[in-house]
Amino acid sequence: MPIPTIEWKNNCVRIIDQTKLPLKLEYLDCHDAKTVWKAIKELKVRGAPAIGIAGAFGVMVGVNKVRTDNANTFKKKLDEVIRYLASSRPTAVNLSWALERMRQVAYHHAQVSVSRKKELLLQEALKILEEDKAICRTMADYGASLINDFDTCLTICNAGALATADYGTALGVFYRAKEKGKTVKVFACETRPLLQGARLTSWELKKHNIEVTLIADNTAAYLMREGKINKVFVGADRIAKNGDTANKIGTFNLALISHYHKVPLYVVAPRSTFDFGVSSGKDIIIEHRHDIEVLELQAQPIAPKGVKVYNPAFDVTGNEFITAFVTEKGLIYPPFASTISHAFT
Ligand code: MRU
To answer: Catalytic: 69?
Structure first.
């Protein structure tokens, strides 16, 4: 069942090149930090937990070939690689969270040899990968308890196996519900401009025999007005201390229309997506991406040359629009200002 989105193989990071899906299932071997940086930047590997794991292995390939026995020289190189990888994408906190874990491993073992440090760094990256697998399963268990037999759910972007090490966040809920014998149908927003919903979510759900119907993003309100959606499940890229949630652009639209139609909206995310250093959504840095993503569709121009473009990759949904968070610690309900920190301490 699991799609190996990211693996450590033959001393390098192997990822599925998600830009090629659904037409081709191709793998990309990253032997150096630059290739990992580019893969993250260009969304060959994407989704908050997956880019955290890619970042951790990116540190490994970034320092693996450093030829020195000098602890200070190694530390300088490690810090440089971490800074570089962190600059690839700013919004998903899982990236800096994983990079920081890698840094701390080296710092806490300042006295050991450089070759031992490399071993410990690899162990830590593999641990981050394995932990993510287990966390996906636990979140899926909690999330599946929210699903009733014959529910029809809506999702956006891709918060599935391709965005994590294993089962996914939001899509994991559907996989688990199905395993428990429930029938669940899913509507997937296509997710312009890069079509993660059309290309990746519908591919994944079909592969797992979950009935999926693709919609253009602007169909969602009409669908809810028709009473066709019971629940909305989305992933997250960064969640502030008060529960405000950054996720794929268009999530806020879904939150507003869900609220209006009284359809519950659940955010499925691990602890590593919560950023306790950010008190509310207004402090979350939103990545803005290249105009070309909006000006073209599958490399074909769809707008007049020279037209201005506005292309934020994420938006922030205020905590008042979120019914609950599904995490590895269980379901977290409002008031989020106290329940979130309580759940994780
Ligand atoms: O730009 P992307 O494709 O990396 O955006 C991904 C999302 O917004 C996902 O919903 C989020 O990372 C959660 S993935 C489990």
So the answer is: no
